[in-house]
From TrEMBL:
This is Cation-transporting P-type ATPase. The chain crosses the membrane at residues 50-68, 74-93, 238-256, 268-292, 677-698, 710-729, 750-771, 786-807, 819-839, 851-871. Keywords: ATP-binding, Cell membrane, Membrane, Nucleotide-binding, Translocase, Transmembrane, Transmembrane helix. The keyword Transmembrane helix applies. GO terms for biological process: proton transmembrane transport. Gene3D superfamilies: Calcium-transporting ATPase, cytoplasmic domain N, Calcium-transporting ATPase, cytoplasmic transduction domain A, Calcium-transporting ATPase, transmembrane domain, HAD superfamily/HAD-like. One of its GO terms (cellular component) is plasma membrane. It is a multi-pass membrane protein. SMART domains: Cation_ATPase_N.
């Protein structure tokens, strides 16, 4: 209720700021934003590229070269070190830009009153003096003084540690009191959990209570995602394996009396070859590009770790309204005591078409009273440009707009003085108004709840007794509407000369009518459900709606058939005392109706206990615990509350189930891409390790210099890996079962494939070296060049081996990836430069090769590609 207060800011409470005033204050006070993490400067980002293990090894290699007087190689290594840093800087900068672009897509909105109209704006544009409108499920956008409150409560646990909701009232705030005791103020970042109200903004951005403690957020360290930990573990294992090889090689060489400088260079070469340079950076870019692709498909991923989980989901609990239906709610059937009207509302032409029923019913007292209650018991706002509020309440106002009735006239004659906000527990909303006859209580809500509070019915302008038989008749009508897929809302009122006591407000009501709302099913959901079935994903509808309505929608979209009935919340057994029969019945059910928020949590736990990875969609504040409990919380972007969106791991901008399926598919593609480029990098690095180690143990000399290995790692490996990471992926990902999230990135079959890839490249290159030396009789320098170019090209061609095993030989996700072709062309161009530019030739010890030697290089580099493709067709390797 409004209360006369001394306002801290000069603003008209009823009209709010004008747009001109708001723009001036935004310019004066700045945006309503808190910088939770200082952005790293480009200079520091570049310097950070030198803080890595590979840099330390490169520096050691340069020191060794300078110590033995090999100045050219020493400076060349420093040059490669700079190239490595620049490459890492560019890739990481690109990843940061991608992540910034994603953050800009996830904008928190706030409702403000400006120029006497309620409008939705980005919360960053809320300024001092704005009148904000808040209701259950909203996140408070700024610190504010309460000026109007209807059962308004906020959850301030994140700010004060107080676990219970705090009731908020208008009044003069005591700013010296502890935050937990300031009942007249609202604080930025806290959640409204009940009721609604207005408040005037007093502080924004860094000046808010949340802003004052933001430095603690800045200093908090960011934890690694599970994927990053797996990548780190993989890198460490490779380093340890190579370290053992390097030590054994060094000791073996000393025992054989080999040159110390050669042994040191070879050991350093092995150490360099062990590190899959660019692994973490390419993984980040792969995730970022995948998330940007999802953003274009109306899916905003809020946590990097969610991407890994997405591809593993095998159970999805989906809400009905707006997710499996279009959320284009409209008044369809009006059930009055005197008869029923079926209408079609056309908001574009401003017309209402009568489909069936007596058109004269619109003149009845019951119809007129229904119109009045639809206006009064309503918090939505519609304008020619925008609509704000609950979709069902918007549908009511759009229907009223066609009656040639001015809603303002009704609200002026019936001044609202209080409200009982809708909650999932009561399933009723009521507004209390003062008029010429005294006090009017306007009520709307679930049919059963409203009927239980009614003693009379408005029939032909007269209030008559409503007995149990009469109530059953209305319940039966509600069942009939539900069977047609309509959602029923009941309307009732109470007119008194004096204001009833609070506990009597919702008693002794008079029944008026019932409206059936149509929300057509999304027909595009049908192929998405089939895709889920093919992908081993079970889709389960969980709704608070009527079971008959849920069943009708489920049958229409192919989720279930008439033989499988929904289970209501009343029928769900206690999960703590669940026997095997009840457990099987629950797990076989595909539609749950009339379920409570607590039961959603229980269902998630039931499936998670079976080892399932559960996705859960939700939109309300009461869905927040379930969204948090699920492995993947999926909030609705259009109709979802801010609390739901903040809690969730991903947000659907279009609220469509089709987007859920697209997100799961993209999650699988992203992880598949990451696995592909890891297999590529590791197999390439292993081939370098095998070539160097085998040559050492066989006393064949040093086949690759440290600088040549560096060149392979930094130049010819990273770009193809990056191309694999950002590709569009395998189109058949939704025809396979979900991946176990506990499994390693590379399973045993993948490791076997990687080792075979590396051995085939090693064998081909070593055979080329042996053939050149023994058959062609070329010198050691040329032999080194043959090994270098053969391995370089073999690794470039190897990128085409990473196509999935069941794809076509020439038409697959790799050959259709334009980035792969670009990477191959660029790397071949760089290889050509090493042969023709003198300074590069000298640094890499490049000699002129004869045509026969180039033929050996070409055969040796293509042989692994051909052999691997044969093995893949024979299903020997992945």
């Amino acid at each position: 209720m409004e209360q006369e207060l001394e306002m801290p800011v000069d603003t008209d409470i009823a009209k709010g700021l004008t747009e001109t005033e708001a723009a001036q204050r935004l310019e004066q006070y700045g945006p309503n934003a808190i910088e939770t993490q200082k952005k790293e400067s480009l200079f520091l980002l570049f310097i950070r590229q030198f803080k890595s293990l590979i840099v330390a090894i490169l520096a050691l290699a340069a020191v060794v070269s300078f110590s033995f007087g090999d100045w050219l190689e020493g400076f060349a290594i420093i040059g490669v070190l700079l190239i490595n840093a620049i490459t890492g800087f560019i890739l990481e900068w690109q990843a940061m830009r991608s992540m910034d672009a994603l953050k800009e897509l996830d904008v928190t909105m706030a409702r403000v009153i400006r120029d006497a109209n309620v409008k939705e704006i980005p919360s960053e544009k809320v300024t001092i003096g704005d009148i904000i409108w808040l209701e259950a499920g909203d996140i408070v956008p700024a610190d504010a003084h309460v000026v109007e409150a209807n059962q308004l409560q906020s959850d301030e646990s994140a700010l004060t540690g107080e676990s219970l909701p705090v009731e908020k009232k208008p009044g003069e705030p005591d700013e010296n009191a502890p935050l937990a005791e300031q009942i007249h103020r609202l604080f930025k970042g806290t959640a409204v959990v009940n009721g609604n109200g207005k408040a005037i903004v007093t502080d924004i951005g860094a000046k808010t209570e949340l802003g004052k403690i933001s430095k603690m957020v800045e200093s908090a360290t960011q934890t690694s995602t599970p994927l990053e930990k797996k990548l780190e573990s993989l890198t460490q294992k490779l380093i340890w394996v190579t370290a053992v090889l390097a030590v054994l090689y060094f000791v073996f060489g000393l025992l054989q009396g080999k040159d110390l400088l050669t042994l040191l260079k070879t050991s350093i070469a092995l150490a360099i070859a062990a590190i899959p340079e660019g692994l973490a950076i390419v993984a980040t870019i792969s995730l970022a590009y995948g998330m940007l692709r999802l953003a274009k498909k109306n899916v905003i991923i809020k946590r990097l770790s969610s991407v890994e989980t997405l591809g593993s989901a095998n159970v999805v609990f989906s809400d009905k309204t707006g997710t499996l239906t279009l959320n284009q709610i409209e008044v369809n059937t009006i059930c009055l005591p005197e008869g029923t009207l079926e209408v079609r509302v056309n908001t574009e032409d401003k017309k209402q078409a009568l489909v069936s029923g007596d058109g004269e019913l619109v003149k009845n007292t019951s119809y007129q009273k229904l119109v009045e209650l639809s206006v009064l018991c309503n918090n939505a706002h519609i304008t020619p440009d925008t609509n704000t509020g609950d979709p069902l309440e918007i549908a009511l106002l759009q229907w009223i707009d066609l009656q040639q009735i001015h809603a303002e006239d009704l609200t002026q004659k019936n001044r609202r003085i209080n409200e009982i906000a809708f909650s999932s527990e009561t399933r009723i909303m009521a507004t209390i108004h003062q008029n010429e006859a005294g006090y009017l209580v306007a009520v709307k809500g679930a049919v059963e709840e409203v009927l239980s509070r009614c003693n009379n019915s408005l029939d032909a302008g007269q209030e008559i007794s409503l007995d149990e038989a009469g109530k059953k008749k209305w319940v039966d009508i509600s069942e009939q509407l539900a069977a047609k897929g309509l959602r029923s809302i009941a309307f009732a009122f109470r007119q008194t000369s004096t204001l009833p006591a609070d506990d009597a407000l919702l008693q002794d009501l008079t029944w008026v009518a019932m409206i059936g709302f149509l929300d057509p099913p999304r027909l595009e959901v049908v192929p998405s459900l089939k895709s889920c079935h093919d992908a081993g994903i079970r889709v389960i509808m969980v709704t608070g709606d009527h079971p008959s309505t849920a069943q009708h929608i489920g049958e229409t979209i192919g989720l279930t058939d008439a033989s499988v009935k929904p289970m209501t919340g009343r029928d769900i057994p206690d999960l703590k005392q669940l026997n095997e029969k009840d457990k099987k019945r629950l797990l076989d059910t595909r539609i749950f109706a009339r379920v409570s928020p607590g039961q959603k949590l229980d269902l998630i736990s039931l499936y998670q206990d079976q080892g399932d990875i559960v996705g859960m969609t939700g939109d309300g504040i009461n869905d927040a615990p379930a969204l948090k409990k699920a492995d993947i919380g999926i909030a609705m972007g259009l109709r979802g509350t801010q609390v739901a969106r903040e809690t969730a791991d991903m947000v659907l901008k279009d609220d469509s189930f089709v987007s859920v399926v697209a997100a799961i598919a993209q999650g699988r593609i992203i992880f598949g891409n990451i696995r592909k480029f890891i297999m590529y990098l590791v197999s390439c690095n292993l081939s370098e390790i095998f070539v160097v180690t085998a040559s050492g143990f066989l006393s064949l000399g040093l086949p690759l210099t440290p600088l040549q290995i560096l060149f392979l790692n930094v130049v010819t490996d990273v770009f193809p890996a990056l191309a694999l990471g950002i590709g569009k992926g395998d189109s058949s990902v939704m025809r396979h079962s979900p991946r176990d999230p506990k499994s390693p990135i590379l399973s045993k079959p993948h490791w076997m494939a990687v080792i075979i890839y590396a051995l085939l490249m090693t064998g081909s290159v070593m055979f080329a070296a042996f053939y050149s030396a023994e058959v062609l009789g070329i010198n050691a320098a040329d032999d080194n060049n043959i090994v270098f170019y053969s391995l370089s090209l073999a690794q470039l061609f190897h990128v085409f081996n990473l196509a999935s095993g069941n794809s076509g030989l020439f038409r697959n996700e790799i050959t259709k990836n334009r980035y792969v072709w670009l990477a191959v062309v660029v790397c071949m161009g760089i290889l050509a430069l090493t042969y023709y530019i003198p300074v590069l030739r000298e640094a890499l010890n490049i000699q002129n090769l004869h045509p026969i030697e180039w033929i050996v290089v070409l055969v040796a580099s293509l042989a692994p590609l051909v052999l691997i493709q044969i093995l893949k067709r024979l299903r020997v390797i992945w």
